[in-house]
Every structure is written in structure tokens, then in C-alpha cells.
Amino acid sequence: MRLIATLAVVLLCSIPLHAGQYSSRSIPAVRTLLPPVIDGRLDDEVWRTAPVARDFVDPYTGKPAVEQTEAYILYDSTAIYVAFYCHDSQPEAIVAREIRPGSEFPGEDTVTFQIDPFFSRNWTGISAFIVNALGTQNERIAGGRAAKREWRGIWQAAVQRVPDGWTVEMRIPWEVLNYPSVHGAVNMSINFKRDHARTRIDYFWSDVTPLRRPELMGIWQGVQPPKATQRNTLQMLTYLTPEWQDGGKQEVRAGVDLRYAPTPQLTGVLSLSPDFRNIEGAVEGIEFSRSERFVEETRPFFMEGIRYFDLTEPYGIGRLFYARRIRQFDAGVKLFGNLNSALSVGVLSTFYGKRESASVAHLRYSLGERGGWSVFGLLRRGNENPHHDGYGITGNYRLGNYRLGGKWIYAREASTGGVAADVTLNYEVPRWFSGLRWMRIDPDFRAALGLVSFTDRQGWSWYTRYDNEIRQGPIREVEADFFWRHYTHCDGSPFEEGTNASVELTFRSDYSLRLGYEIATFEGARDRVYEIGVQGNVSNRFQRWELSYEFGQRSDQDIRFVRFGLTRRLLGRLDVGFSGSILRFDQSREQYILTFSWEFDPLRALSARLVRRDNDLNWYVAYRSAGGVGQDLYLIVGDPNSRRFTERVALKWVWAR
Predict the structure, then answer these.
(1) From CA 552, how far away is CA 527, in angstroms rounded?
(2) Is 228 helix (H, G, I), strand (E, B) or coil?
(3) May I ask the CATH class of domain 21-230?
(4) Which of 61, 401, 461, 524 could connect to 485 by a Cys-Cys bridge, CB 3.0–4.6 Å?
(5) What is the 3-state secondary structure (H, E, C) of 359-401?
(6) What number of other Cβ atoms are within 10 A of residue 551's Cβ?
(7) Mean pLDDT, range 445-472, rounded to an integer
(8) Where would I find the beta strands (DSSP E) of 4-106?
(9) CA quadruple 132, 134, 135, 136: dihedral, nearest 10
(10) Bridge-partner residues for 469, per DSSP?
(11) Which DSSP letter does residue 94 get?
């Protein structure tokens, strides 16, 4: 009752901040007969006929930006053309560091063009094209794309410095995007964004508020996209890898991936003999965990269209599809995309040997900003593992600042199975998020293709988050989280009860401070853990350092966990990183990671990684000439994903068309 009373106070006292005059803005679609030259200069006559997006705003204050931006947009039957003029009263303070395509740009001056051709008004359908002040490009295509440039999408961008800032031009071919097959004109969701490094403020043309609500994006009115016959519908990627291993063993492996787009909305991928051995995987941490740790996926086959297979609920039941459960396969096929503006589909199957197979299917219906529902199924068959079946339905609906959601899932392995279900009520306003959840997972629930931390539990949880950017004073950003849960076993006996709370302050001096605590009881044993963390040069990944310390008790035993990291750019091209973790608990564990990377140019680099975990030591060195169009070349000494060093040399060629 105290929890419910407290929650009611929070919900009633949170002040709902509604969208202002700068939200859901519109701009007309104008077709051009003469495309601009993409050189970063805005002196092409065609830009004089383009509609202009002006008056960028600060989403945290709703006020116009101090340093203003103009954006221009045109299109023809082959591409979309976008330009930015970024005014800056201190152009000498413009920040741009990254030169490698596909990089992230924390703390840099960038511009972003966002587009959702289906006007779905949700984030899963939005593609983003980002350029920093050096002209380095990155993109996030709706649904997810693999790393090869031809598959991610070939588009152009150019940048120029001007006396009062910098200018950008982009050319984005229609064939890069998924878009509706229609006759006549349609509306599309778009937005223009500018990240201003000196003030650490992200400005938007159409104000999406601090919640980044997609339904408040701008509206591109009256667009006539090209027909599907104008697209390159078939793409092929092949690889060849000769390897030499310890003892003189030699091996030559080869494989092919085919990508076919039968319509502008749908994409199919066929992968035969994929090369996972030479894909650098994420390193699993050694931090305390009572269950299996989550490790990020990096393999291209699973990254392609990944959002169409997203069955993730990290704060609830768990990840119902965890691609790392499929360690390898001989053949894999997937189909994903939009059947229409509201209905999307993702189907995936892999086959290993004669009888090992795994399949996932996900069908989602979107109600736009109001929510949506989905149905899904999972299947695994094989000799080494018991047969697995799973299926379920999820849905959510938003009314004003409230969102009601729920899910029901049945999953079994062999003859053992059970149900997992939950109901959620969220309150969402700018700066505040609060969610109440009831959940139950049967003891016999078996998610063999997922990552579900615990079964045989039921109960309540409450998560609240406050996030604010402050425009004056020493503190630049505040993030605070509170998580309470009370779970029992399904027979009513105690399982887990506790609270987590944390606050992180980012200062204008580019330092951050994090404080946190956890007080809980798990299966009758007590947790009392405290955390303090500091970070310097937060906005510059080439000069960043961090240190955190966790101490207290876990399961009535003393625990100490130290984590640290340091990155430096030396001699203008050499990036060095060193990080470590030290755990002192029921047994002592240590892990250290040392990385080097020398960038010869945007496409060529020499890199190395050394990982020491307890008594295991692994390292590898790799040369890459990749990231552009055409052939990619890799030379690898060692095995990136082994626990210990392997005497191995691999040469890998990749061709795409």
C-alpha cells in the first residue's frame, strides 16, 4: 500500500509538458529537375527553389536555438537531397575527430537527417543519416543493416567550413531506404537535427521534446516515391578465407550472402557458410551476476533487420530471442520488412548439419503513436538439444501520458513448458518516466532460444527515471533512477525483494559523478551494495578516463568490484585503450583489455586487442582495408574470440555487388 501511495504521488505531481508550437511541423515536398552537386557548397541555383526548415529549437526548453540552423530538402526519382547551414558564432570551436565511416560521434559537431517513409510515427521505422564537421558519415537504417558498405547503403555527403559556421550537402538514393509502393503522393515523417559540441545541446527542427516522441516529428507533405522497378533488387556478398593454424594445418573456407528486395518494403537474406570466426565479438564482463550475462550481438547475418526480430524486455520477462543461442549454422535465411504502413514482419531460419534448425517469426501491427500489438513464435529442432517451441502475443496502447501494455507467452522444451505473462502501466512525460509492472513466470517456462534470468517468480516492480539537461550553472545533466521489486516463487515463498537507486551528474567541466546503492534480499540472503563512479573528458572518447568502485555485501558475503578505463589518441593517429575489472567475492577474478589502432586513412588501419581474464591470455593483430565500396581485405593473426591465444593466420577477402 505504501508503494501504491508513493506511486500515486509521483504520477500526480509530475507536470505533463505538452508539445509546443514547434512540434509536428510540416514542409512541402518539392521535386527538382536538376540535382545539386554534392560538394558541401550551397551555391547551386537549385537550393534557391528548395523549401527551408528554420527556427531549430532546444527540446528541453522549447525555445529557439541560440546558434541557428537552416535545412533544405529536395528530391527526384533517384534520390533525396538535403543541405544544412550551421551558423556558429565561434567557428574555431567546432569539434570533429572521427574519420572512419560508420563511427559514432560523441561530443562532436554533427547534423542528422531522419526519415520514416511509412509515416508510422514510431522509432522502429526511422532511418538516420549523420555527418560530422569533417564529412565522416554514419547511418542507422530502419530495421538494422549489416556492416558492408554496399548493404548499409551507398550515399554521399560533403562538408565545407564557412566564416560563420559550416555547411553540409547529402544525397540519399531511394534504393537505400525501404519505402511504400504507392501511386500518387504520400506524407513521410522527417526531422533535421544538429548536435552542437560547444554548448553540448542537440537542436531539432521539429520539437520532439526530451522524450523524443516520434509522433512529433515533422511532416514531409506530398512525396511521390519512385517505383520498385528503379531499384537494385539483388545484391551479393562473397568471402574467401585461407587459414594457417598451429601444426601446419591449412584450411580454405568460402561463403556467400545474397540480399534480395522483392519490393521497396521487403528484404530477404540468404547466408551460406557464414564466417563468424573472424568477426570480433564483444568481451563478456566479470561483474557479479546471479544469472547468465547478456553479450551484444555483432554477427552481420543477425544484425541485418535486427529490429524486426526484437523480442526484448530487459526489465521484465527477459530477451525472448537471443541470437547468440545460435552459435553457428551452414545456411540461414530471413525475410523482413513492412507489408504496409502498419504491418511489419520478420521471419528467420537457420540450419546446421542435417537435423539442427532454429526459427523465429514476428508479426507486428503498429498503431503509430498510440501503440501496437505483435504475435511471435520460436522453434528449435535438433539431436543435441531437446525440441523447443514458444509463441506469444504482446501489445501496448497509449492514452495521453499513460501507456498500458501486456504480454502472454508459452514456451516449452521437450515435454516441459509453462506460461510467462505481465501487465504494465507507464506514465511518460518530458524528463519523467514511471512504470508499474506485475509479472509471473511459471516454474516450467523454458525459453531455450532466449535469455530469461529466472523462472518460478511472480510479483510487482516499479521503475522511475528522471532525466534533465540544465542550461545554466555547473551541472549540465542529471539522470536519476529508482527500481523497486517484490517477487515471490509461484508457490508464494519469498524469492527477491529490494530497491536500487542511482544518480549521475554530468558537469559543464566535462566530468561526471555517479552514486548508487542496492538493498535487497535474494532467496533469504541479503545484499547491501554501494557504488561510486567518476569519469573525465566525457565528451571526448580519445581522452576519456573512468573509475568506479562497488563495495558492500552480496548474499551475506563481502564484495569489492573495481572498474577503470583510459583512452588516448597519440601522434594524431594512434588510439590506445586500457580497461580493467577486479572482482573480490567468493573467488577473485580479474580482467584486463588493451587495444591499439593506427588509422592510416578512413579505410585502412592496423589494430590489436589483448584480453587477460584470470589465467587466460588471448591477443590478436589485424590489418583491414575495408569500409568502402568493392573489395575488403583483412589479415588476422590469432583468433579474436578465443579465450587463449591461438597460433593462426587468416587472410580474408570480401567482395560485394
Answers:
(1) 8
(2) helix
(3) mainly beta
(4) 461
(5) EEEEEEEECHHHEEEEEEEEEEECCCCCCEEEEEEEEEEEECC
(6) 15
(7) 94
(8) 26-28, 52-53, 69-75, 79-87
(9) -70
(10) 477
(11) -
- The domain locations on the chain are 21-230
SS3 content of the chain, % helix, strand, coil (to 5): 10, 55, 40
Residues 651 and 242 sit within 8 Å (Cβ to Cβ): yes
Q: How are beta strands 218-223 and 26-28 bridged, if at all?
A: parallel
If residue 7 lies in a helix (H) or strand (E), which one and from where to where?
Answer: helix 2-13
Identify which of 222, 88, 264 has the alpha carbon closest to the alpha carbon of residue 167: 88
Confidence of residue 486 (pLDDT cuts 50, 70, 90): very high
19 pLDDT band (50/70/90 cuts)?
A: low
Instruction: Report how far residue 256's alpha carbon sits from residue 240's, in angstroms, rounded to the nearest whole number.
Output: 9
What is the pLDDT, as a whole number, of residue 17? 45
* Closest among 350, 420, 412, 409 to 374, alpha carbons compared: 409
Judged by DSSP in three states, 402 sits in: strand
- Which amino acid makes up residue 143? G
Cell numbers given for 86: 550551421
DSSP helix/strand/coil, 154: coil
Nearest CA to 455 out of 465, 468, 441 is that of: 441
Alpha carbons 363 and 348: distance in angstroms, whole number: 12
Tell me the three cell numbers of residue 582. 577486479
Strand partners, 97: none
Closest to 337 in 3D by CA, of 229, 262, 226: 262
Say which DSSP state 643 is in.
S
Mean pLDDT of the chain: 91
- Residue 166 to residue 88: CA distance in whole angstroms: 8
Q: Give the Cα separation of 618 and 449 in Å (integer).
A: 29
Residue whose C-alpha cell reads 577486479 in the numeric block: 582
Fill in the amino acid letter for 631. Q
Q: Please check the confidence at residue 527 and state whether its pLDDT lies above 90.
A: yes
Q: Is 492 helix (H, G, I), strand (E, B) or coil?
A: coil
> From start to end of 263-329, where are the E strands?
266-272, 312-313, 318-319
Could you tell me the three cell numbers for 307?
529490429
Residue pLDDT, tens place only, 594-640: 999 999 999 999 999 999 999 999 999 999 999 888 899 999 999 99
Share of the chain above pLDDT 90, in %: 78
**Residues of 258-292 as b/e, b for ≥16 C-beta within 10 angstroms?**
ebebebbbbbbbbbeebbbbbeeeebeebebeeee
Report the distance separating Cα 270 and Cα 257, nearest Å.
6
What's the gap between Cα 447 and its chain centre?
23
User: Which residues lie below 8 Å from residue 88, measured CB to CB, with a gap of 6+?
Assistant: 67, 94, 164, 165, 166, 196, 198
CA 439 to CA 441: how far, in whole Å? 7
Beta strands 525-536 and 494-507, pairing class: unpaired
HEC profile of 611-630: EEECCEEEEEEEEEECCCCC
CB-based contacts of 609, cutoff 8 Å, min separation 6? 280, 593, 594, 595, 596, 619, 620, 640
The CA-based diameter of the chain, rounded to the nearest angstrom, is 75
Query: What is the pLDDT confidence band of residue 341, given thresholds at 50, 70 and 90?
Result: confident
pLDDT at 314: 53
Contact of 192 with 204, CB cutoff 8 Å: yes
**Chain CA centroid to CA 483, Å:** 23
Burial environment of residue 612 by CB neighbours within 10 A (0 to 12, 13 to 18, 19 or more) = middle
Task: Give the pTM.
Answer: 0.88
